[in-house]
Design goal:
32% of the residues lie in helices and 21% in strands. With 220 residues, it is an alpha/beta fold. The termini are far apart. Bound molecules: S-adenosylmethionine.
Amino acid sequence: MNYSLEMNNGQLGLIDQDNLEMTPIVIDFISGKTAYRRKYGHAGGEASSKAVGSKKGHRPNIVDATAGWGRDAFVLATLGCRVHMIERSELMAKLLEDGLRRAEQDEKIGKLMKDNLSLSFGESQQELLHTPFEPEVIYLDPMFPHKEKSALVKKDMQILQDIAEQDTDADALLHLALTIATNRVVVKRPSTADFLAEIKPQTSIKTKKHRFDIYLTPQP
Ligand SMILES: C[S@@+](CC[C@H](N)C(=O)[O-])C[C@H]1O[C@@H](n2cnc3c(N)ncnc32)[C@H](O)[C@@H]1O
């Protein structure tokens, strides 16, 4: 694994030094795949919005403590939730920061982005102790170890697995989140995965590929 960042045409891109033919990967909230989801919706977005308890008249504020490509956070922010992302991989945090900077300058979504989406670079077990607002919801989507590189694991998830640390501390993150979120913690898992930290959620919402486990807080 040998990734680096390069600024090109005003966009920060991730480059695989072992595969220079690969198009640099940028985070594009304005016109990329993520933007398409904003315009046309998608099953995962509906499920994640239900899972965080978002409804007309109440858009909860959320800390996404495992931001990654920022896709889930972006979808929730465009629904009207105030979302603060935390990401500990420096490469990912820089890509997110650049994506956010460009989105904030966009005529259509700039204001929404400034109002609803923010980022800190750091380790969530520390950052959760001083977030910009008290989170009603903490959203966790830790990396799930895929044993081998296969065509079934999407390229962008493979890259994340290459550059981000293994999330071996995800159980501890859930335990901490449960003491901080004022309404619930939502954990996104592959549909066949065990419960994080072996803690049974109060309820789950299932899609074809994923499960959103919902832990109401304070825990009984
Ligand atoms: C599976 S990805 C999340 C994908 C994200 N939900 C999306 O929609 O793009 C997990 C990300 O969480 C980050 N992460 C995991 N544990 C973390 C922690 N304790 N603190 C900060 N970031 C963490 C990893 O570096 C990785 O980028």
